[in-house]
Every structure is written in C-alpha cells, then in structure tokens.
Amino acid sequence: MGNIKSAWELAHEKADKLGELSQEEKRKQMEERCSQIGKTLADKYLERENTRYLETELKKYNGQDKESIAHATLERLTDAIDFRYAKALEKIKDGILLVSKNSAKDIVNQVEELFREYQEAEEGKRQEIEKAGKEILHQMRISGTAIGKINIQANAQWQKDLEQTSQPFEEKLRSLKQELLSI
Predict the structure, then answer these.
(1) Residue 32 and residue 176: Cα distance in Å, rounded?
(2) What is the Rg, in whole angstroms, of the alpha carbon atoms belonging to the chain?
(3) The pTM is what?
(4) Average pLDDT over residues 38-65
(5) How far is Cα 49 from Cα 40, in angstroms, rounded to an integer?
(6) Are the beta carbons of 175 and 111 closer than 8 angstroms?
(7) Residues 41 and 57 sit within 8 Å (Cβ to Cβ)
(8) Between 89-99 and 105-139, two packed helices, what is the crossing angle to 10 degrees?
C-alpha cells in the first residue's frame, strides 16, 4: 500500500516546489502590507478623538516600512479632503502635517484658503438662490410668515447652479491633492 500523507505534508511539498519569493514579489507584498496599515491608521485617526494616535502608531515602525506606511497614510488623509466635510479639515490637516513632517505646510494652507473661498462662494450663491425663490413666491402673492426657509434641493436648476459654483473649486482642490501626494 502507498504512503498516506497528511494535508500539511502535501501543502509543505507544494510550497517547497514553488520555492522562495523573488525580490520583486517580496517588495510588492511589503508595499501592499504597508499600504493597508497606512490606510487603516488614517481611518482610525479620523474616527478617534485622540489627536496623538497617529504619531504614537507611526513610532512603532522603522525604516522603509515607516516611510511606506506614512505615504499610504498621507494618501488616505488627502483622499478624505472634501468640501462636504469641512468640519473634518482641521483634523485632516493636522494628520497631513504630522505625516509629512510639516513639508506640506504651504499646500495645506492653500487648501484651507480654498475651503474659505468655497464656503463664501457657496453662501453667496445660496443667498442669491433664496432671494430668487422668495421673489417667485412674492409674485405668486405668498409672503410674510408663510415663507420659511427656501429649500434649494427642491429645484433642479438651483442644485445645478450650486454645482456649477463648486466646479472650479473642485478642480483646484484636485490639483492641490496631487501636489500633496507628490511630497
């Protein structure tokens, strides 16, 4: 009768046949691992109240691993910058400055300024739309306390106007994000 081998022995024999990983395969595995760690660190940092979390976690790594993880963290934090989540900008900014060792300070300042300009432009457009909406209601002889706040989402044209207002800001933000990633 033949020899019966365990599943472990069969797997071990197959692994021996495959041989060692090439340098390129090892490098890719390391990059994938560091990328995953960096993205997870960034996500946890954004969820937590502790602003020192990112700094503490990055200290656990050394050399090339630390650089790769820091870059992946920077990518994830940069990706999180969004006009819809302006309240998160301060925390994202602090994380980016920590990971980039303040080399991104000028770009981050430009992003902050862009957010201020966007908020001003959006508020101006909202006021313009609300004024136009109230004028329409006034023409229909609806006025006074019968008018509450104008619902901008109720009219497709108003939504389109708001989107057109944000488009140049979105393009500039994409450009600044690319600059951040090239650090």
Answers:
(1) 25
(2) 26
(3) 0.78
(4) 93
(5) 16
(6) no
(7) yes
(8) 160
